[in-house]
Amino acid sequence: MMKICIDCDPGVDDSLAILFALCRPDIEIVGITTSAGNVTAKQGAENTLRILKLAGMEGRIPVCIGAESPLEGECGEFPYFIHGKNGIGNVELPAAEQKPIEMDVCDFLYQKACENEGEMTLITLGRMTNIAMVLAKYPDFHKKIKRVVSMGGTLHASGNVSPVVEANIGGDPEAADIVVQTPWNLTMVGLDVTLKTILRKTDIDQALGSCRQECKELLVFLQQEMKWYMQGAHRQNWMRECCPLHDPLAMVVAADPALVSTQKRITRIECEGKYCRGMVVTDLREQPIKGRYVEHCINVDSEKVLNTLFAAFQ
Ligand code: BDR
Ligand code: CA
């Protein structure tokens, strides 16, 4: 059983990632934390609770609200045209009875790390603010974590918030730079592979036709929220009835690392500049800058990823 803690900003693609994890019998989610990104951290937690209820998991997984702004500067505008006003493609899910746990997000993450010492994989699907904060408050936090898998960044593909910057890293570069300098086992799943992993509307329609009974409602929800998200992908990348898979790919890679090829590179995050603030800088020189080795996903077997993703609902 793989134990995971998810730090996210649901988020249409975050919700698909969460639903995949919930439906995999070999994954146990020990906690979910949120930060501002696609919507406020509060709204992200609300969305998470409603998704858990939809999946019949209400009251089973604690959800904690985290940072409402990055380590430095302002939160910025939310990308409503991609995730909708409420973050889940403007789909109205029934409200949950479960409330967010009333705990400081750093204390919550540290508690989960201690309870599952050496066993917990941390999956980050949003800005890394909460993670940078817990590392500052509890300097031994990283020692308790088995592995970190993060959706974020790009090495060679174009960025999605500037020519060279991806949204999760661009939303809080200082936090991401702290995370990449931490001595732990970190894999970054960036736009180099997520933009190659394309979900078509017809994939969801097909999955709905062949899923197990208890997953029907989940896929109907996905079908509805993806409608908005795919329109956003059209506005952003001229895609038609399809979209890239960002957060779900990170979750699938956490579950099955063999679906991507990777390279370890000395990595830092650029924290200055108009166009490059938030850029992932890797150094391949013989005498590189000071930094730690981070594993970056370079290539992906996207067909197998889609099969793995939807197999969870069959
Ligand atoms: C990332 O940004 C957010 O909009 C998505 O949820 C994903 O985590 C993609 O750049
Ligand atoms: Ca996200």
Structural features, described:
The protein is α/β, with parallel strands linked by helices. It contains 12 helices and 11 strands. A 9-stranded mixed beta sheet has the order 3-2-1-4-5-6-11-9-10, sandwiched between helices. The protein has a two-stranded antiparallel sheet with strand order 7-8. β4 (120-124), α5 and β5 (145-151) form a beta-alpha-beta unit. α1 (12-23) runs parallel beside α11, α4 (105-115) packs across α5 (129-137) and α9 (201-210) runs antiparallel to α10. The mean pLDDT is 97. It binds beta-D-ribofuranose and calcium ion. Residues 11, 13-14, 38, 79, 82, 125-126, 151, 160, 166-168, 246-247 line the site of beta-D-ribofuranose (BDR).
Instruction: Let me know the largest β-sheet.
Output: 9 strands, mixed
Strand content: 15-25%
Order of helices and strands: EHEHEHHEHEHHEHEHHEHEEEH
SS class: alpha/beta
Number of strands: 11
Bound molecules: beta-D-ribofuranose, calcium ion
- Distance, first to last CA: 19 Å
Number of helices: 12
Strand order of the largest sheet: 3-2-1-4-5-6-11-9-10
* Unreliable segments of 5+ consecutive residues: none
Tell me the overall shape: globular
The radius of gyration is 18 Å
Helix content: 25-40%
What number is the mean pLDDT? 97
